[in-house]
Amino acid sequence: MSPKPAATRVTSSQVAKLAGVSRTTVSFVLNDVPHMGISEETRERVLGAARQLGYVPNAAARSLVSGATRTVAIVTPHSEHLKVDAFIPRMLAGVNDTCHAHGYKVIFEPIIDTGRTGGGFIEMVDSRRVDGLIAINTPRIDDVHLARLASEGFPLVVFGSQLIEHTNIYSIDVDMREASRVATRHLLSLGHRKVAYLGFASDEYHGVTERLYGYRDAMREYDLGSEFERIGFADFSAQSGCDAMEAMLDRGPSFTALFAGNDTIAFGAMAALRKAGLRVPDDIAVVGYDDIPLAAFAAPPLTTMRTSPYEQACEASDLLVRLMAGERPVELHSMMAVPLVVRQSCGSPVASTIPPSTAAGGSGAKSGLA
Amino acid sequence: MSPKPAATRVTSSQVAKLAGVSRTTVSFVLNDVPHMGISEETRERVLGAARQLGYVPNAAARSLVSGATRTVAIVTPHSEHLKVDAFIPRMLAGVNDTCHAHGYKVIFEPIIDTGRTGGGFIEMVDSRRVDGLIAINTPRIDDVHLARLASEGFPLVVFGSQLIEHTNIYSIDVDMREASRVATRHLLSLGHRKVAYLGFASDEYHGVTERLYGYRDAMREYDLGSEFERIGFADFSAQSGCDAMEAMLDRGPSFTALFAGNDTIAFGAMAALRKAGLRVPDDIAVVGYDDIPLAAFAAPPLTTMRTSPYEQACEASDLLVRLMAGERPVELHSMMAVPLVVRQSCGSPVASTIPPSTAAGGSGAKSGLA
DNA sequence: TTGTATGCGTTATCAC
DNA sequence: GTGATAACGCATACAA
């Protein structure tokens, strides 16, 4: 069935035989077991034999007896995200770097692709293939499985799923709603009143609704509504952002500013704007979200909210490593704030800055499209 | 040492006991062993017991006896690439999708980060943690280890390392030299004579030198030299592309066109150009390489060479799966051609198209900077 | 048709 | 100080 690879397969018995000792001694020496009183001479002989034979312990055998695999998995939604967006890749880099530094391998596991109805990552846990799990932006359907794992004490760190209410899940989130308020307020404070919003995905994701809420919050602070025709939804990619923006323009919209749910769709939206003969920021001001590496090099450089996925992934992984080591920090949840990075996609203030809720309607707004 | 996770740990013995049969029977039923004549009734009882207990076979035990792990690793250089560029992420998506479709988990393993002097991935093989390996753009120092694995018959597919001369290594490459010729020729055919080249990394990578050679080939076809001051080197990121371009501009260069080693640094270079008051394509024409998802949404949309990392990764993974199944296709190497995607970053022809080697020097070239 | 016995390569508990 | 021996959980040749 499974063809045995031809790679050398050296066992500890062979090392023992060559060194003239028992397998136990080999194990003691190789694992540096203290207080076993191994003579320096035997030690050297064993080490030499192991080196000479190129001995590497069999991982399966080792984990069968130890119960640990020195492997973790990073669970994400579609692998599609890897193709079109820069968020998950940076997250993966952080998880990888941190986990590797602690001697863990990392399995990359997108779950929706499996076609399961949720909990597609459970089998990895139950079959004991991994010692811990980091779940990134998993859809709501998996919340219940995440909760089960956590309640069983399995090392798990959840990122971006807003499971704050759960008292046994370790989680890290950014305050997306507040971040969206900040982003939208930035446009409002510049004098814009007709601000459009472009969601980056369907509302199956926690992040999408959170950002929409934040946008609405800020609009309300300025006594502004969020009209349907100024709200659009894309689907992760720049292409979808471009399509969504074209649709909004076709709907005969009137807006002078755009808050895009992420930078990638902001790129797409800006391209659509350009194609329609609209200039950024002169005609339309744009704020993105994420601060992907290319945001600073867009034309014009994109003003955006700086989520720091690499750093956040490092933090999540550090926590996971501690959980796998048996620690149980008292702090369950951490909520991070993200800064606004002002570049040039919003231009200069349209009118003198108008404080929220005291401005007289859209008086300070630009004339815009309509 | 290693704290046993509290997750349920059901063994086949427990299933056997609940079903009132032996462990062997459980194994036969669960693995669908044919010609064993298991009665339909027992079968149902076993399946029911397994489901009731939530039984999942222990992966370590299974792989210890079977010799297989149902896991592959994708070996890449720095994890840094995940942070700043879009090539490796798309590659990973392809490997992931294909391998998952065949029931394999995938370990993401950047090797240079380990600080080893090469062969950092060998231990995964020797410890039998993986059944196969895909090596992407590994540096030259690892060639020897790759060759060793291949000669031992270990399932291995190498991508982008140009190891064509090896008669036992399965490899997939794109003809980067030819691609670079095509890219450079495109600029030359548009009438440009002063064409600059920006490498995307140090020449530790096969791809960097290949692309430089291709650029020189094309220049030579037009009887043009490749002056040192028109050659720059970046380091993967858009930021480095921006820095490198600024340095080239500082050196008081004279060029009317740029061939950038990848799209990411092209973004950076274009930003530097813009900052210097130069317009693309009016003052400088730009061709990139890779066709990353954002290339089409750059301002102006970037003309580039379309490498298709996702598709290439799928092909490499398909091959790996076949190797792991024991197949040994006769075709060892495959070399792919990549198409030029013309968008708007090169504008229109500068003069009427001039055939190679017959043009009178730089007569058709634009005046440019100097 | 089902159960018994053995081995996979380690680690760990004991006597010696 | 060192060396047998028993798990770990599963698969399978073989016996019943």
UniProtKB/TrEMBL annotation, chains A, B:
Gene3D superfamilies: 3.40.50.2300, lambda repressor-like DNA-binding domains (1.10.260.40). PROSITE patterns: HTH_LACI_2. One of its GO terms (molecular function) is DNA-binding transcription factor activity. It comes from the Bacteria. Residues 10-66 form the HTH lacI-type domain. Keywords: DNA-binding, Plasmid, Transcription, Transcription regulation. It holds the Pfam family Peripla_BP_3. PANTHER family: HTH-TYPE TRANSCRIPTIONAL REGULATOR GALS, LACI-RELATED TRANSCRIPTIONAL REPRESSOR. This is LacI family transcriptional regulator. It comes from Paraburkholderia largidicola.
